[in-house]
Structures are given as C-alpha cells and as structure tokens.
Write a structure and sequence with these properties.
Blueprint lengths: L1 H36 L4 H12 L18 E4 L6 H14 L35 E2 L7 H5 L7 E6 L2 H12 L14 H7 L1 H4 L13 H5 L11 H13 L2 E4 L3 H12 L24 H10 L1 H21 L1 H22 L38 H11 L2 H7 L5 H13 L7
Parallel strand pairs: 1-2, 1-3, 3-4
The structure holds 2-acetamido-2-deoxy-beta-D-glucopyranose (NAG) (3 copies).
One 2-acetamido-2-deoxy-beta-D-glucopyranose binds next to helix 12.
InterPro entries: Gal-3-0_sulfotransfrase, P-loop_NTPase
GO molecular function: galactosylceramide sulfotransferase activity
Pfam families: Gal-3-0_sulfotr (PF06990)
C-alpha cells in the first residue's frame, strides 16, 4: 500500500516539476524572443529627441508641446516621387545629426532580395538607428530590429497606371522577355498581349506587374481576389502611420509635417528625378484600362490608401489644408527663385556641374536636373545645394560607399548608352 502511495506521490511531484520547468522554458523563450524583437529601447530615441529639440523650441507649430519625431522608416517605393522625399529625409537627418541605416557599396538594400539587417552597413545585432529610407523589399520583422518601437512608418504610392508606364519606360530593357517586342510602341504592344511578354519566373519581371505590392514584400502574381491580397493590405494599413500619394504631393507633405511635428522649411522640395515630358507615353483610355487591369493588386492597394488619405485630410481640416498647401507652394516657388538658374529643370546634357546630374536610366538620358544659381544669398546657399543634390551624390556626401552603383553606372554609360535625343 505504502509503496504504491509513495510512487504516486513521486509521480505527482515529477508532474509538478515538469509543469514548472516547461513554464519556465516558455517564459525564457518568450522573453528572449521579445528581447530579440525589441533591440532598440525608446529611451535611446528620447535621448536623441532631447538633443535635437533645442533648435526647434522657437519654431511655431500647430500643436502645443509636440516634439519633432526623429525615428522613422520610409519605405521607398519605385517610380513614385520617392527620391524627392528621400532628399527631405537626408536634409533633416543631416541637420540634426541623426543616425541612418545605410546600405553598403550601393544605394539600395540588395533589392529585390527581401530586407535583412545584415545588409546595413557595419551592422551588429543591437545597433539602433533613427532613419531607414533606402530602397528595399520591405520586411517588417527585420526593419523593426533597427528602430525604436516608437518609430513612425511612412511610405508613398502613386496611381498604378502611371507607375506602370514609368516603370516600363525605366526598366523594360532590364527585363529580357520584352526584348522581343518589335513594335515602336512597346508599351502598347505589351499591354495588348501581356502574357506573350511576361512570365512570373523571368528575370526582373516584377518591374512589370504590381511593382508596389512586390516592393512591400508580397507576391505580385497573386490573383486580385486572392484572400491574401486583402490580408496584406490590412497588415500594411496597421503597419504604416501615413501613406503619402504622389498625385497629392503637397497635401502629403503637409500631413507628414504635422505627423512628425517638423517645420515647413524641413519639407520644402524641388521635384527630383522628373522625366522629360516627351519621354512619357500618353496612354489612350483603352490602354489605361488595360494597365489598370494588369496591375489590379496595386490598383486595389492604391484605392484603399486613397480613401484613408482623404480621411486624414478631412481630419486635418480641408480649409486649413488649402491654406497650408498655398503657403508651401509659395515657399517652394521662392526657393526656386533663390536657388535655380532660370527657375526650372533642364535636360541632363545641359547640367553644368556633375554634382547635380541625376542618375539616368539604361540606354538614354531622360531624367531632368537643375543648374544652381551662380549667385545665391549666403543665407540660402547651403539649403539650395542640399535641395538640389540628387540621391546618389547625397548618399556619397553622407559617407556611403557606392562602389557597386558606380561600377554599374560606368558599365551602363560605356556599353549601353544610345545617343540620347538632344
Ligand atoms: C527664441 O525664443 C526666445 C524667448 O522665447 C527669444 O528670446 C529668442 O530671441 C528666440 N530666438 C529666435 C532665434 O527666434
Ligand atoms: C481618390 O479619392 C478622391 C477623393 O475621394 C477621388 O476624387 C479620386 O478619384 C480617387 N482617385 C482614384 C484614382 O481612385
Ligand atoms: C549636440 C548635443 O547637444 N549633444 C548632446 C546630446 O546628449 C548627450 C547626452 O545627454 C550630450 O553629452 C551631448 O553633448
């Protein structure tokens, strides 16, 4: 009898011990997972905020007691005016000595490979940054390791039809299947029979279908009504604090300035990386409809964020927005006058100083740039220079080594340039 009781007792003891142990292990696992997810404490960012708030204290803001936000993730999408946003972020980060997570050797994080922290220059686990903003294929789990949890996530979208036109223009030479299109109107030929020139397995094919969805890390070849499309859009909706729209660029920047508690000067801009208008294909309504259907996931994504965008504008105040956009346009025009020779953009071959010459697509030079005024009020000289510096040159100024990008640029110009229409 006693023996059996004793055996039962040790069984119970063993059971309790086992429960305690598994709980402890679970707790350890959970804790280490948390520690891994949250490598950057908010306190680090607060320290930085204190450091950078000093210059702001006199600047009037619409909100009482708002501190400028300095931790942010900008998901740089392709062909969406995102280079202009990048210039704004570079200027802000440089002015306030913020820490950027930059790529190494090139200007993107090994796009189109999904982002991982090890692509960050000199990255060691536990490193924390203020700003992540170079091209990447979005991967939230990895990005989150670099930033404090209070980081603001922003991105920019553009009407997928215009985005497709632009992406086709810029990248079709890099997608081998399009090489067999014989027509002069390659874009039209493609849209009239996309399946003949597109294969989801083909090299670089993502540039030609639902590029936005691909940039955000999802499968760009899903059917439009696939339930995971809806789930993906919902997850982006939760993840991003603000989604800008290229079509409403000023309104977007005003919302950004409000969200980040920055000043008007911080978000002034010159349109960078704009294309010569003669190189933009005018699509017939029929082809536009085809482009929309071909990029139906991106269209769904855009529709979703177009709605949330206008809700934000409503909340901001329609009249207040109108006033602020007017003021921003006025200040931008003023900066054009101060900084830019002739006050407008010029063709690449007319840019005198190569520091201001933007990167050109393979086989042509259709991207416009600016000449800086010879005589600038010293008060504005630095701001003018920074506002006019294209992405690649600005990255170099910020200390990024770009040997791969430069090598590619040299090969491109040496072997692939056709004489550009002058
Ligand atoms: C900042 O504000 C203080 C007092 O509020 C004022 O004395 C000072 O002149 C202001 N500085 C600037 C640059 O406006
Ligand atoms: C975006 O929303 C605005 C306001 O509701 C609407 O006027 C516009 O047509 C929409 N754009 C697209 C491309 O759906
Ligand atoms: C520029 C500046 O104010 N730097 C300060 C940032 O904060 C640290 C720690 O509080 C100071 O040591 C720096 O002087």
């Amino acid at each position: 009898m006693f023996g059996i009781k004793g055996r039962k007792w040790t069984l119970v003891q063993g059971f309790i011990l086992w429960i305690l142990l598994t709980n402890f292990m679970l707790w350890l696992y959970y804790y280490s997972d948390l520690a891994q997810e949250r490598t950057c404490p908010n306190s680090i960012s607060r320290l930085r905020v204190h450091n950078v708030t000093l210059p702001f204290q006199n600047i009037t803001s619409n909100k009482v007691n708002c501190l400028p936000k300095v931790n942010l993730m900008f998901m740089k999408t392709h062909k969406t005016a995102s280079s202009t946003i990048l210039n704004i972020l570079f200027r802000f980060g440089q002015k306030h000595k913020l820490k950027f997570a930059f790529p190494d050797g090139r200007n993107d994080f090994f796009y189109p490979s999904p982002f991982v922290c090890s692509q960050v220059k000199d990255y060691k686990p536990g490193n924390c940054f203020n700003i992540v903003c170079n091209h990447m294929r979005f991967n939230h789990r990895e990005v989150a390791k670099l930033l404090p949890p209070d980081a603001v996530y922003i991105t920019i979208l553009r009407d997928p039809v215009d985005l497709f036109e632009s992406s086709f223009h810029y990248y079709h030479r890099a997608v081998p299947l399009t090489w067999k299109i014989k027509s002069d109107n390659k874009l039209g030929a493609f849209l009239n029979n996309p399946d003949a020139f597109y294969s989801k397995e083909a090299f670089n094919s993502f540039y030609l279908k639902n590029l936005l969805f691909f940039d955000f890390g999802f499968n760009n070849n899903l059917a439009e009504d696939d339930p995971s499309v809806h789930t993906a859009i919902e997850s982006l909706s939760k993840r991003f604090d603000l989604v800008l729209l290229a079509e409403y660029f000023e309104e977007s920047l005003i919302l950004l300035k409000e969200l980040l508690c920055w000043t008007m000067e911080d978000v002034l801009y010159f349109k960078l990386n704009a294309r010569r208008s003669s190189s933009v294909s005018r699509l017939t309504p029929e082809l536009r409809a085809k482009a929309q259907k071909w990029n139906s996931i991106d269209w769904k994504l855009y529709q979703h964020f177009n709605v949330t965008f206008w809700k934000k504008v409503d909340a901001y105040g329609i009249d207040r927005m109108k006033e602020d956009v007017k003021e921003m346009k006025r200040r931008n025009a003023e900066m054009h006058g101060f900084c830019i020779e002739g006050g407008h953009a010029v063709e690449a071959h007319n840019i005198k100083n190569s520091h201001f010459l933007p990167w050109q697509p393979v086989g042509e030079s259709s991207i416009l740039g600016y000449n800086i005024n010879r005589e600038i009020d010293p008060k504005f000289k630095t701001l003018c220079e920074k506002m006019l510096t294209p992405e690649i040159q600005y990255l170099a100024d910020l200390g990024v080594n770009l040997w791969l990008t430069r090598l590619w640029g040299w090969l491109k110009d040496a072997f692939m340039s056709t004489r550009s229409p002058q």
